[in-house]
Design brief:
seven-stranded mixed beta sheet; Immunoglobulin-like; 1 helix; disordered N terminus; 2 domains
């Protein structure tokens, strides 16, 4: 086997190791070689006081006709610059996963059945104000799949439910520290550099609009990527359009105005963007 063939097979194996990372508001599902799970809710944003326990339920639905086994565990996670999630099942420094108790590590759900899976988080009495973040991983049985022109490779399905627990008085503190026009998915896009100097994650929201150099009146949607405590993240402002509408090309310069909101804060915003 030459290096090119070996690299091709390794690439196929990589893409066949399926997983889904979920932070959206809709119920996540993954259908792959018998792994047909639907999880609700896909994300938890909780509050807890030190010394108090919070109990939660994840609903796991098996959408296949056959019964399925699922394996559950917790993991730490990080976000890259584009919002991609990386998991770490080892106990990282400062992890709050010792506070987390899960119902069991393996369950069986009948075909078309539903299971209400319990977990709880117990911040200790001396826990400082801050944020506990972890993922609840739901995995299926590994199966071996034969590729059309290569060896059989293992395929595993995974769904990750992201959990945030704000402890005590923790809160985000967001600040716009820069603006620019960046190339995102081939389109010139206004972006904000947002710094979070607080001790909990935050998300920007709000209503923004502007008129570009061609006189087009535009409304902008703010990316809802989380800005974790202590980080500065690029947040894009994309032109709001219908699902079937063609992409809108902005004629720069454009001045964008409105209000930016996060947590219980609201601040006026006005900025001129030009490449």
């Amino acid at each position: 086997m030459n290096n090119s063939q070996a690299g091709s097979r390794l690439l196929r194996a990589f893409f066949l190791a399926l997983y889904v990372v979920v932070t959206a508001s809709c119920a996540p599902s993954l259908y792959a070689q018998g792994f047909a799970a639907i999880i609700s809710p896909p994300r938890f944003e909780l509050f807890a006081k030190p010394g108090e326990k919070t109990r939660q339920v994840v609903e796991i639905t098996n959408a296949s006709a056959q019964s399925a086994r699922y394996y559950l565990k917790t993991a730490d996670w990080t976000l890259d610059k584009t919002g991609g999630v990386a998991f770490d099942e080892t106990l990282t420094a400062g992890s709050c996963r010792p506070w987390v108790a899960i119902e069991k590590r393996e369950i069986t759900v009948a075909g078309g059945g539903r299971y209400r899976y319990r977990f709880e988080v117990s911040p200790p009495v001396d826990a400082p104000a801050g944020e506990c973040r972890f993922a609840l991983l739901v995995e299926g049985d590994e199966q071996v799949v034969k590729t059309t022109d290569g060896p059989a490779v293992p395929v595993a399905g995974r769904i990750a439910v992201i959990v945030y627990v704000i402890v005590g008085s923790a809160a985000p503190k967001l600040e716009i520290v820069g603006t620019q026009v960046a190339l995102i998915n081939g389109n010139s896009t206004p972006v904000l550099q947002v710094k979070n100097s607080g001790n909990a994650h935050g998300r920007l929201d709000g209503f923004l609009s502007g008129t570009d150099a061609d006189g087009k009146k535009l409304e902008f949607t703010i990316s809802t990527l989380p800005i974790l405590s202590g980080e500065t993240r690029t947040i894009s402002l994309t032109v709001t359009r219908g699902e079937k509408d063609p992409p809108v090309k902005i004629a720069y310069p454009v001045t964008i105005r409105g209000n930016l909101e996060w947590a219980d804060k609201s601040t006026p915003f006005e900025q001129r963007f030009a490449p």
